[in-house]
Amino acid sequence: MIYEVRTYTVKPRSMPEVVKRFGEKYEQRKKYSELTAFFQVEVGPLNTFMHIWGYKDLEERGKIRAAAVKDGAWPPPIAEFLVSQQSEILHPAPFAPEIKPSNNGPFFEWREYTHAAGQLPIMMKNWEVALPTRLEFGPITALWYSELGGLNKWIHVWPYKSLDQRNEVRDKAHHSGAWPPSARAKTDGRPIESLVAQRNMILTASSFSPTK
């Protein structure tokens, strides 16, 4: 399974119309494959949204996209509003819960870590050990590593009912001593991955997003 994350930035004040047009066109597009999620950035880069699609592999991605374009089901008519576009192909971590339609939001925290080259095996091991404890405090929406696009990325997305709940959950997880994964690794005497950059965003889901 792969996931394509397409990140678009649009002109100021155009987001309501963009989302409207995207949602209308999605009614045609979803007969080829359904969205995983449609997120708008609330805290972070403004006027930005992400649409995320799951595919079996790159071959299936190409076939589905070609068929949708040929039949006029895609893309949505939003070109006049676009400022920039970016696409990345991500793999789910092998131990991550399956991504299914959910209603765990409406707020989502997107945390993106860039690790030094060659550090992915260390990152995976530390997360595999620590994640079960973290899930005792709340679910995870997605856990990915990058394949195409920005390299050496580790992305985790967490749902919350409110930003206050986010703070409460994070505090409880930290006080457990098992989170973040680097803290557990230090306690267990395992190597700690080397990170070179981190960023986070607060997102909200659209009404037509299966993940909301």
Describe the structure.
This protein has one domain (2-205): Alpha-Beta Plaits (2-Layer Sandwich). It is built from 5 helices and 8 strands. Helices cover 30% and strands 34% of the residues. It has 212 residues and is α+β, with helices and mostly antiparallel strands. Helix 3 (120-134) packs across helix 5 (181-188).
Features of the shown structure:
alpha+beta, single chain, globular, 212 residues, Alpha-Beta Plaits, 8 strands
Briefly characterize the structure.
Helices cover 30% and strands 34% of the residues. The protein is of the alpha+beta class and 212 residues long. It has an eight-stranded antiparallel β-barrel.
Show unreliable segments.
none
The helix tally amounts to 5
Largest sheet: 8 strands, antiparallel, barrel
Count every beta strand, where a strand is a DSSP E run of 2 or more residues.
Answer: 8
Taking all Cα atoms into account, the compactness measure Rg is 18 Å
Q: Which band does the percent of strand residues land in?
A: 25-35%
| Total domain count | 1
Q: Give the integer mean of the pLDDT values.
A: 97
Distance between the termini: 21 Å
Could you name the CATH class?
Answer: Alpha Beta
Record the strand order, biggest sheet.
Answer: 1-3-2-8-5-7-6-4
Structural class: alpha+beta
Helix content: 25-40%
CATH hierarchy: architecture: 2-Layer Sandwich
